[in-house]
Design a protein that fits this description.
about 400 residues; alpha/beta; single chain; 5-stranded antiparallel beta sheet; TIM Barrel
């Protein structure tokens, strides 16, 4: 007697445009690997000072390549480093080398600050905190303008944007300088209203951005967790896009953005992975805040609106309908993923191994840096909350 078997059902495959990561810092390591976390965003930000410094070209190359392996073909990068103009351009050169090697489409946002990220501007640190995260600042507003001009001349093949890393970390004078630079045709991107305290850190941040002429159809703001309804309608009227980063908001205890409130107000939005977790896929991050249909729209159409990066001609073939595992990724006609594997996987693996070795060598020192922060953290947070409450 013979036994008949029904044919196995075929796996449902889909083809889409490339996804866009609309807010990234291009880190090839996760928050957890650096020991970054805490009960508040402010603790998480301070703990970032304990991160291990890795080769910037390898970091950008691996981060971009791993995004491609997840179906991301375009990324908006918030670039920022402390130091003078030469330091800034040297770090930018290394980052761009990594981006180019990967083949991803990218908008590189040249960011800057001139107020301490770790204390509100009017705050006087108490004893023992004077040297906490006092980053050297040797890049004036005029020098920043010079850096932007040099970058545009040195890297004509790269699309640049400009922005305050966050308006709360910039003086009014610097915001106005960035606004003047943006009038030369640069897109604008910034962190905004990521935590309750950050929105009142240094005045009314949305009003300050508007006065500096930094809000318009070429602007996107990341996070937006603590924006008011009035602010959302203003942003909608001005054509500003938002970028939700639900995974990093969760990991850094920043809160949950009301993305459907954004949509109800008429604000377009994309999704940012925010370099929070190497294992996270774009769809898994987007589904923390959105339905499947809305997630796909935000990762494609919404991402293009937020960044100006057009991935509509790129193609991603997915192994099934969940849009989690790419089988093929083609960017600008070049195949970057074939049969589910990065075409340049060996080069990426070698770069990742170098980063892992650096992380391992620094593990003990990194732990000691966190121990110092452990001792300072209660006093630091108390000082910050007192200053914020006094505003």
């Amino acid at each position: 007697m013979t036994t008949s078997h029904a044919p196995a059902p075929e796996t449902t495959r889909r083809s889409t445009a490339g996804f866009i990561d609309a807010h990234s810092h291009l880190r090839a390591t996760s928050y957890a690997e650096h020991g970054i976390g805490g009960a508040t965003l402010e603790e998480g930000l301070l703990r970032m000072t304990a991160m291990t410094a890795v080769d910037m070209e390898d970091d950008a190359f691996v981060a971009c390549s791993e995004l491609i392996a997840k179906g991301v073909t375009g990324v908006q990068v918030m670039f920022h480093t402390f130091g003078d103009g030469d330091d800034y351009l040297e770090a930018l050169d290394a980052t761009l080398a990594g981006v180019r090697r990967s083949g991803i489409r990218a908008l590189i946002v040249l960011g800057t600050t001139d107020q301490a990220e770790y204390f509100p501007p009017a705050c006087v640190p108490t004893a023992g905190l004077e040297n906490v995260a006092r980053a050297p600042r040797r890049l004036s507003a005029d020098e920043f303008g010079g850096v932007v001009s040099q970058a545009a001349q040195r890297y004509p093949d790269i699309t640049f944007g400009v922005g305050p890393v966050g308006p709360q970390w910039c003086s009014d004078a610097l915001l106005h300088t960035i606004g003047e630079i943006s009038q030369q045709g640069y897109r604008v991107h910034s962190h905004a209203a990521e935590s309750a305290s950050q929105r009142s850190w240094a005045g009314d941040l949305i009003t300050r951005l508007e006065r500096a002429e930094l809000l318009g159809p070429q602007t996107s703001l990341a996070h937006g967790v603590w924006l008011t309804d009035v602010e959302l309608h203003l942003l909608a009227d001005l054509g500003v896009s938002l970028v939700t980063c639900p995974l990093s908001n969760h990991l850094l205890s920043a809160g949950t953005a009301n993305v459907y409130g954004w949509r109800a107000a008429g604000v377009s939005f994309g999704v940012g992975l925010d370099s929070a977790d190497r294992a996270a896929t774009p769809m898994s991050v987007a589904l923390r805040a959105l339905t499947v249909t809305d997630a796909e729209h935000a990762l494609t159409v919404g991402g293009t609106c937020a960044t100006g990066v057009d991935s509509s001609l790129d193609r991603v073939e997915w192994t099934d309908g969940t849009l989690e595992v790419p089988q093929t990724v083609i960017i600008a006609g070049v195949e970057r993923v074939a049969d589910g594997v990065l075409v340049n996987r060996y080069e990426v693996d070698e770069a990742h191994d170098r980063i892992a070795e650096t992380m391992l060598r620094d593990a003990a020192e990194r732990a000691r840096r966190h121990e110092v922060l452990d001792d300072l953290m209660p006093t630091y947070l108390e000082t910050v909350w007192r200053a914020v409450d006094a505003r």
